[in-house]
Amino acid sequence: MAREFASPAHYVQGKGVFNDPQKYLSALGNNPLLLCDNIVWKIVGERLKTTLETQKFTVKRVTFVGEASDEETARVTAIGKEHQNDFIIGLGGGKTLDSAKNIADKLGIPVAILPTVASTDAPCSALSVMYTPDGQFKNYAFYSKNPDLVLLDTEVISHAPVRTLIAGIGDAMATNIEAQDVARGYNKSMLGESPTLASLAIAQTCADTLFKHGAQAVSAVKGQVVTPALESVVEANTLLSGLGFESSGLAAAHAIYDGFTVLNGRLQI
């Protein structure tokens, strides 16, 4: 069986990188569709749109309304066709970002992924987790390429709710466990081929980073400051976990989560 590794074309992370988006986005086009929900719009979206417009981008803002569903992505795809957008910016959390990738694939245009939380490893992958409109897991949608750009402003992430970073740490903790399980069973990764040595090493580095810096990173977000520990954990949650899961594979942890989405009410543990 062949080995395969995938990654986004570019990954940029740092404090204040949303202040000069032209530096990173100009290669993708000049007429973007900006997808974000109303909460993210108030926190950073409106400011980003203003900055883009001062840098001569023509921005069409579209409100994301909650679920990464086929119905929602079809709605936004129609808007993108109407306005002839030449790339899409997904700004927000995992479901917004997965929707942006799906829409970009349908339109055949580049996609820039701008997470505002480090709660998921969705940004870097060439797939989306799709749900029904009422939030039940439906399927994985796979694409021919990974995002053209993943851009994270750690100043924004340091002001996000602490629980979102902790959620990302929990998600990323599963990456190495599942990667090792896939490798031991000679199973396939999410790419349909065997894991590479690089992807397995990345998954291990992800776990090592979280154990070493996780507690300090949580403290940094509690204080709303950007520290080296936070930078390391944001990278682990987003890049290392993303590369690790996609090119190494998933196992029981994600299957159990997918099953939980069909349950109603609060889960008692």
Automatic annotation (TrEMBL):
Q: Which terms in the GO cellular component ontology are assigned?
A: cytosol
Q: Which EC numbers characterise this protein's activity in its record? A: 1.1.1.6
What keywords were assigned to this record? Metal-binding, NAD, Oxidoreductase
Q: Under the GO molecular function aspect, what terms does this record hold? A: glycerol dehydrogenase (NAD+) activity; metal ion binding
Q: Which reaction does it catalyse?
A: glycerol + NAD(+) = dihydroxyacetone + NADH + H(+)
- PANTHER family for this protein: GLYCEROL DEHYDROGENASE, GLYCEROL DEHYDROGENASE 1
Family affiliation: Belongs to the iron-containing alcohol dehydrogenase family.
Output this protein's name.
Answer: Glycerol dehydrogenase
Species whose genome carries this gene: Secundilactobacillus oryzae JCM 18671
